[in-house]
Amino acid sequence: MSDRRSMPVPDGLEGDRLDAAIARMFGLSRTRAAELVAAGDVLVDGAAGAKSDRVQAGSWLDVTLPPPPSAPVPRPDPVPGMTIVYEDADIVVVDKPVGVVAHPTVGWTGPSVLEGLLASGVQLATSGAAERQGIVHRLDANTTGLMVVAKSEVAYSVLKRAFKERTVDKRYHTLVQGHPDPLRGTVDAPIDRHPSGDGRFAVVAGGRPSITHYDTLEAFRAASLLEIKLETGRTHQIRVHMAALRHPCVGDHLYGADPTLADRLGVHRQWLHAVRLGFEHPTEGRPVEFESPYPEDLRKAVDQLRED
């Protein structure tokens, strides 16, 4: 049974795209929100809107929501290769392998961190949308490394706020083509969906503010190993910003990487790893920090470059 909601646009969403505003207000994915707009289930001041329309604070929204999805069915086995780095009553920190998404999404038939944890008997927070319970941040399917998932409701609330307020220390290592100049810098460029609509993101005027700090750790003949610190957490942010510098992540064919170099190094996905995650424990208040070693495929690529 559908659910009709009527309410004004909050002040905090002033200027957001309509699909983004609907997603944030009702805990939907951006894709699902765009589908509702396209189906005419979103009225702005009584008129059907377009997903790219910018909303104004105080405008009246009439939204017909679909029935809530059922909670995900746990997979029969834990996700192969996913390890639990730390767990207590409030949080669980996992080291995510390649080919695993954070939570189930439309069209994805592979494993997810959420389903893997549920299959392992881990109880997660139920705040937010049913298909994203406990998930407070995400990694791309082919980006490996550390993720924290909330087990208690208070942890979910505190961690969501911490990520929003940028108090979480998120560090990544990435192998990029060439040598960035300068060797250390900041990319401050807004990101939104690529105008082509092909699933890519891009630096787009009027997009969401996005800030990436990078520092060269090691330079090789054809590539550089960088440490990345994120202030924001946009979809594909590191990949988009590195491509915008004309130094795409090695193996990232979606964003223009050289397939010849990737093949030579045996890299079959973007060379990007969430190596360190630090934050204030949501209930105990103490600082916690976790680190993850490179997976074998990424380590071998760096070893080969060092030998060269």
Summary, kept brief:
It is built from seven helices and 15 strands.
Describe this structure in words.
- It is a single chain.
- The N and C termini lie far apart (62 Å).
- With 308 residues, the chain is an alpha+beta fold.
- The chain has 7 helices and 15 strands.
- The strands form 3 sheets. Strands 5, 6, 7, 8, 9, 12, 13, 14 and 15 form a 9-stranded mixed beta sheet that branches.
- A hairpin with a 2-residue loop joins strand 2 and strand 3 (47-48).
Q: What's the alpha carbon Rg, rounded to whole Å? A: 20 Å
Structural class of the secondary structure composition?
alpha+beta
Instruction: Give the name of the CATH superfamily of the largest domain.
Output: Pseudouridine synthase
Strand elements, count: 15
Number of helices: 7
Strand content: 25-35%
What distance separates the N and C termini? Answer: 62 Å
Tally of individual domains: 3
CATH architectural type of the largest domain? 2-Layer Sandwich
Q: What is the CATH third-level topology name of the largest domain? A: Pseudouridine synthase
Mean pLDDT: 90
| Major beta-sheet overview | 9 strands, mixed
Helix content: 10-25%
- Point out poorly predicted stretches: none
Give a quick set of tags describing it:
four-stranded antiparallel β-sheet, Pseudouridine synthase, 308 residues, alpha+beta, nine-stranded mixed β-sheet, RNA-binding, globular, Structural Genomics Hypothetical 15.5 Kd Protein In mrcA-pckA Intergenic Region, Chain A, 7 helices, EC 5.4.99.-
